[in-house]
């Protein structure tokens, strides 16, 4: 099942380190089957509440691939380039299958 890495980034200081991070991240994802789904503000339109910052979403073919990418020496080497220059929250979340219905979450409880 697809796993997504979701980041909500704020206060990004767009300088040399962020540029270096952007230039390197694709190569860190490739061995794990990672790809971008969303990147940046995406011309967003806030429909409810308030939202500041940017959203980045990556997809990986499995939870183990996503975890292996994040822990990989290649990604860990560039991670400080982002964390020194942006505030944010990052999480991994599993996708749902094509037959998923909203009430399926009631079965988990």
TrEMBL record:
<dbReference type="InterPro" id="IPR010753">
    <property type="entry name" value="DUF1330"/>
</dbReference>
<protein>
    <submittedName>
        <fullName>Uncharacterized protein (DUF1330 family)</fullName>
    </submittedName>
</protein>
<dbReference type="Pfam" id="PF07045">
    <property type="entry name" value="DUF1330"/>
</dbReference>
<dbReference type="InterPro" id="IPR011008">
    <property type="entry name" value="Dimeric_a/b-barrel"/>
</dbReference>
<feature type="domain" description="DUF1330">
    <location>
        <begin position="3"/>
        <end position="96"/>
    </location>
</feature>
